[in-house]
Known about the structure:
Blueprint: E1 6-17, E2 23-34, E3 38-42, H1 49-56, E4 64-69, E5 72-73, H2 79-89, E6 90-94, H3 105-116, H4 121-134, H5 150-162, E7 168-172, H6 180-197, E8 200-204, H7 208-212, E9 216-221, E10 224-227
Parallel strand pairs: 3-8, 3-9, 6-7, 7-8
Antiparallel strand pairs: 1-2, 1-4, 4-5, 9-10
Helix pairs in contact: 3-4, 3-5, 4-5
Amino acid sequence: MxxxxxxxxxxxxGKYFYEPVxxxxxxxxxxxxxxxxxxxxxxxxGSGKSTLLYCLSTMDxxxxxxxxxxxEKVTGKKTDDLAALRGHNxxxxxxxxxxxxxxxxxxxxxxxALKLGKYSPAEIEHRAYEKxxxxxxxxxxxxxxxxxxxxxxxxxxxxxxxxxxPLIIMGDEPTGNxxxxxxxxxxxxxxxxAQEFNQTIIAVTHDNDFAKASDRTIxxxxxxxxxxxxxF
Length: 232
């Protein structure tokens, strides 16, 4: 049996909140996420799902324990080094699309790649058109983001997350504002990214159907992992 490549892992991750009183929001979190895996994080509100996601993303560094990316310890790295790691390797999809409404869809998708500076502006534009085409939105490329439907806007935000070809896509309630039809479209896109492009998906969700259809589900309660492979 082929051994899966561990893309991201945690070792005894813990985190405290101090307001209004001190309490431990993450407690001894240890798990591995694999290359090409579609992983969902579930649990009741306040269980620590989103807090864990932001620690995994390296945007929140105020935690105990260790975080590893492709076997390399990233805990304790400098802010600039973490920003570079995110820029090259992690794409984000949030519950709200956070598009710049007055910019075209094309420009919104191009922004992370222009910031990274790995390709020329012409190449970035070409790549942005490719991502929009993959998501069925090439014909909307020059339209202002504000003029698209909610489902289309969320697909543009996914194209933006994909522009730098990250190894990991992280989603925080990526279907939370969508109706069931558009939620299914987003799920199908994530499934395709994992299966065909070998990208790892780590998504926080309250949607049981979304979680049930993913490859693996980690359930949290009171800041602890209570199930590494929850079945619904």
